[in-house]
Design brief:
The chain is an alpha/beta fold. The chain has three domains: about 70 residues, Elongation Factor Tu (Ef-tu), domain 3 (Beta Barrel), CATH 2.40.30.20; about 290 residues, Rossmann fold (3-Layer(aba) Sandwich), CATH 3.40.50.12240; about 90 residues, Bovine Mitochondrial F1-ATPase, ATP Synthase Beta Chain, Chain D, domain3, CATH 1.10.1140. About 35% of the residues lie in helices and about 20% in strands. The strands form four sheets. Strands 9, 11, 14, 16, 17, 18, 19, 20, 21 and 22 form a ten-stranded mixed β-sheet that branches. A hairpin with a 5-residue loop joins strand 4 and strand 5. The radius of gyration is 25 Å and the shape is elongated.
Length: about 475
Amino acid sequence: MRGIEYKGLTRIEGPVVITARSRNGGFNEVAAVYDRGEGRRLGRVVDLSEDWAAIQIFGNSTGLSADDSRVEFLDKPMELRVGPGLLGRIFNGLGEPVDGYGDIFSSITMDVNGLPINPYARTYPRDFIQTGVSAIDGMNTLIRGQKLPIFSGNGLPHNRLAAQIVRQARILSPGETGAEGSGADSGAREQFVVVFCAMGVKYDVARFFLDDFEHSGVLSNVVVFLSLADAPSLERLVAPRCALTAAEYLAYERNMHVLVVMTDMTNYCEALREVSSIRGEVPSRKGYPGYLYSDLASLYERAGKIKDSSGSITQIPILSMPNDDISHPIPDLSGYITEGQIVLDRELFQRGIYPPVAGLPSLSRLMKDGIGPGMTREDHKDLASQLFAAYSRVKQVRNLASIIGEEELSESDKRYLKFGEQFEQVFLTQNESENRSIGRTLDLGWKVLAGLPREELLRVKQEYIEKYMKTAAD
């Protein structure tokens, strides 16, 4: 049964149509636009005034007539159908199944815009998530409930790294140090699922992710939302909201631990800028709307843990920095909202190092609360601090060597140069199929530190040096 329809459109501007405002119409609610042939196109209310409403159509406005078209306000926000059958399914950016298996068999629908979380209801993130990547687990640890973005650039292997994290991410059981082959985590692994959202990606990139998930056997544990590059701009804006809605259902209704990987946030922001331009809004930095910060926050802040719920949502948004500029509005604002960042370095990538995680610009602000005895290992905090300090010295020595030549360096500086090579080739570098336990990662850290004089290791306790360095060397 249809509601009240409004005949005629005041103006058509690309995918945006202007019409008379419904008496009860609200921002972000869904509307149906009918053309002369009774074709039905769904859209979303993106702007309101006292008398008029702007509706952006999911698609294009070709064939619409200003005089003969009709608009029906559906008096509800955009919703996603959720249920136990979400896992293993593939959806487009609007939450419609595209894998050929039909709709989800469930009567439960949720508003894709989410519900605001009372800050008092949040609990502090503290539990370690093992990604199997030493550069992340050892020095930029991911914590359950955290939002930790990856800052990348065009041509860098962020897609490969994202696929690897989806394949390997897991939660350790209490007291487990991550030894390969251990079956102690089987209970935790059953509760850990991944929601993957790709926005504005090309078909070959989408195919890469789907093939990787299928061949590695993790697709049954993943919910995929794909908005391809040829999809309408509005679909890119809806896709992450659908993904996070699915994550909220799995986390807070099904008590699962959910890792949400979203790529590429730059495409999302470009779509937001395009829609803002169509609506005639005054642009801010580099043409992006002034509300870019709050819009990104509306996505990122949907991560976290809530009291009285055993589930959690952890986010890894991936964004490619235009011209590798970390001060660009997208990475700049993302850095303010999120709890750290993992920065991919082009120089490391050109030298054949994978994953090319930059040692010094990367950081995880919640790392200190998710590592240590009972979570990873007692030496983790000291070891990570020492590796950061030593690698920082390596950068200084390399700059000095470029001026005076390596031959003129002191013996101590030469040892740091050798440490830098070992750190990058042994600790950072690993094969895409190599899934390192946290124990293996920490042992490799001690192995590369063994090349430095003992008196230089000021950030680690002597008892840890005696206990772990010899074991790592063996």
